[in-house]
C-alpha cells in the first residue's frame, strides 16, 4: 500500500505539470523520462517462442510480442504489486480504444481511499483514467479475468510493480501493440507473482 501512495503522489505531481486547456486526449504532459531499458525495441528471442503470441516476463517487467521465429517486439511494462499478477495463459477476447474504466469491487475493498472516489468509473480519455489509450481484455476459459494489457497516463511507472495486477505500457507502445494483435491472441505471463 505504501508504494501505491507513493505512485499516487508522484502521479499527482506530474499531472500538475500538464497544460490546462483542450481535451485530455490532446494534452502533451511534461513528464520524467522513461528509463531507456524499457523503450520499445525489436529483439532476438528463443526461436521456439510461438509466432503471434504475447509473453509477459513478470520478473523483468517486459512484454514480448513474437513477430517471427526468433524475433519479438519488446516493451517495458508496469505490473501488479506482489501477489497481484495473473500467472499462466490467457487470451485477448476484447479490444477497446480509449476505454472507459471502473475499479473492481476488490480494488475498492482493498484500497478504498485510492479507488473509492472512482467507484462510478471514468470515461475514456479522462486524464485520471488508468487504462490510457488502448486496452486488451484478457480472458481464461471464456471468462473475463479482469486483467488488462493497457496504456497508462503515468508512463514514469513503467518498470515498477505497484498496481492491482494489470499490465501497463506507455500509451504509444500500447497503440502499436493494439494495432498488431488480433482477437484470440494467446498471452502467457510467467516468472513472478
CATH architecture annotation: Beta Barrel
The strand line-up of the biggest sheet is 1-4-3-2-11-6-7-8-10
Mean pLDDT: 85
CATH class: Mainly Beta
Shape: globular
* Helix/strand class: alpha/beta
- What helical percentage do the residues reach? 10-25%
Number of strands: 11
Amino- and carboxy-terminal Cα gap: 16 Å
Q: Which parts are unreliable, with pLDDT below 50 for 5 consecutive residues or more?
A: 1-30
Tell me about this structure.
- With 193 residues, the protein is α/β, with parallel strands linked by helices.
- The chain has a single domain (2-8, 34-190), classed as L,D-transpeptidase catalytic domain-like.
- It is built from four helices and eleven strands, in the order αββββββααββββαβ.
- The strands form two sheets. It has a nine-stranded mixed beta sheet with strand order 1-4-3-2-11-6-7-8-10, with helices on one face. The chain has a two-stranded parallel sheet with strand order 5-9.
- The model is unreliable at 1-30 (pLDDT under 50).
Task: Explain the layout of strands and helices.
Blueprint (H helix, E strand, L loop, with lengths): L1 H14 L25 E4 L9 E4 L4 E7 L2 E6 L2 E2 L7 E10 L7 H6 L1 H4 L18 E7 L2 E8 L10 E3 L3 E2 L2 H10 L5 E5 L3
Parallel strand pairs: 2-11, 5-9, 8-10
Antiparallel strand pairs: 1-4, 2-3, 3-4, 6-7, 6-11, 7-8
Short description:
The protein has 193 residues and is an alpha/beta fold. Helix content is 18%, strand content 30%.
Core attributes:
nine-stranded mixed beta sheet; disordered N terminus; L,D-transpeptidase catalytic domain-like; alpha/beta; 193 residues
Amino acid at each position: 500500500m505504501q508504494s501505491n501512495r507513493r505512485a499516487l503522489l508522484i502521479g499527482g505531481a506530474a499531472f500538475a505539470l500538464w497544460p490546462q486547456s483542450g481535451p485530455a486526449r490532446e494534452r502533451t504532459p511534461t513528464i520524467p523520462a522513461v528509463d531507456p531499458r524499457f523503450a520499445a525495441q525489436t529483439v532476438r528471442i528463443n526461436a521456439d517462442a510461438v509466432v503471434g503470441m504475447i509473453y509477459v516476463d513478470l520478473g523483468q517487467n517486459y512484454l514480448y510480442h513474437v513477430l517471427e521465429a526468433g524475433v519479438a517486439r519488446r516493451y517495458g511494462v508496469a505490473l501488479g504489486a506482489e501477489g497481484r499478477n495473473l500467472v499462466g495463459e490467457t487470451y485477448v477476447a476484447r479490444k477497446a480504444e480509449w476505454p472507459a474504466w471502473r475499479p473492481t469491487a476488490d480494488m475498492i475493498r482493498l484500497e478504498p481511499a485510492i479507488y473509492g472516489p472512482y467507484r462510478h468509473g471514468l470515461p475514456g480519455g479522462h486524464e485520471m483514467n488508468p487504462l490510457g489509450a488502448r486496452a486488451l481484455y484478457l480472458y481464461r476459459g471464456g471468462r473475463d479475468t479482469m486483467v488488462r494489457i493497457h496504456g497508462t497516463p503515468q508512463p514514469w511507472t513503467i518498470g515498477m510493480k505497484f498496481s492491482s495486477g494489470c499490465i501497463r505500457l506507455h500509451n504509444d507502445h500500447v497503440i502499436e501493440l493494439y494495432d498488431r494483435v488480433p482477437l484470440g491472441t494467446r498471452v502467457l505471463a510467467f516468472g513472478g507473482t
